[in-house]
Amino acid sequence: MRIATWNVNSVRSRIDRVLGVLERHDLDVLLLQETKCKDEQFPTLELTAMGYELAHHGLNQWNGVAVISRVGLDDVQIGFQDMPGFGDPVAAEARAIGASCGGVRVWSLYVPNGRAIDHPHYHYKLDWLSVLRADAQRWLADDPQAQILLAGDWNIAPTDEDVWDVSFFEGKTHVTQPERDAFQAIVDAGFSDVVRPYAPGPGTYTYWDYTQLRFPKKQGMRIDFALASPALAARVTDAMIDREERKGKGASDHAPVIVTLD
Lowest CB count within 10 Å: 67, 86, 95, 111, which one? Predict the structure, then answer.
């Protein structure tokens, strides 16, 4: 079984690339983030023609998450329990969707960016992660053998080697200690990064900004992760980051992250 997560940065602009990733990696499940469309705008016909089912949560041209599966798509859940919202008035955003696919409970997650240190969005990000950790911890407490994958764009670089130049990010989000602590809290709750052992750093990134020729200069960040529960982590036999997908005209600024299970 092969599961991938990818911040596609507009699914309507990149549906051909989505189809290509599904076929090239022979994916059973693909989790998308930043789809940037409403549910009724999602391009479904091409996916159903390939034998995939789809669950999508999108409210407007921002955010948006999806689960695409050919091994079943059951018990779809929009957002996790008590997931914080943002804005004035405060409203839930399209940042999390869960489903059961082939016996695995997958979550496609688009963690808030944070924008700037001490910005309201930064505190929203930390609250969002705290509530996710509490829910994830409860899921494992209820069933220690549960097979759960928390995957997506976390908008956090957990270690210094996960950015091309840590001094460049001084005073910026994604690398602050509170953000890293929030990520580590989910690891401490029992969820392990199952990709890093197969794709170690430094220099192994999942995101390269469009500006300043960041990709050809190899100036990236590792901010997309697949965190697995113990029972699921035991099934992982391989993982990779598809850096090739970042190349060429019309690429997303993120690369797909792929996990293979026995």
Answer: 86
**Residues 66 and 11: beta-carbon distance below 8 Å:** yes
56: tokens are 């999508």
Report yes or no: 137 and 189 within 8 Å, Cβ to Cβ: yes
pLDDT at site 122: 98
Amino acid identity for residue 229 in this structure: S
pLDDT at 101: 98
This prediction's pTM: 0.98
The fold of 2-261 is Deoxyribonuclease I; Chain A (3.60.10)
Q: State which residues of the chain have pLDDT below 70.
A: none
Task: State phi, psi for 238 to the nearest 5 degrees.
Answer: -165, 160
Beta bridge partners of 61: none
Are 67 and 83 spatial neighbours (Cβ–Cβ below 8 Å)?
no
Backbone angles phi, psi at 68, to 5 degrees: -115, 125
Can you give the pLDDT at residue 73?
A: 98
Question: Among residues 157, 45, 40, 55, which one has the least CA distance to residue 106?
Answer: 55
Which pLDDT belongs to residue 256? 98
Q: Where are the domains of the chain?
A: 2-261
Task: Return the pLDDT at 3.
Answer: 99
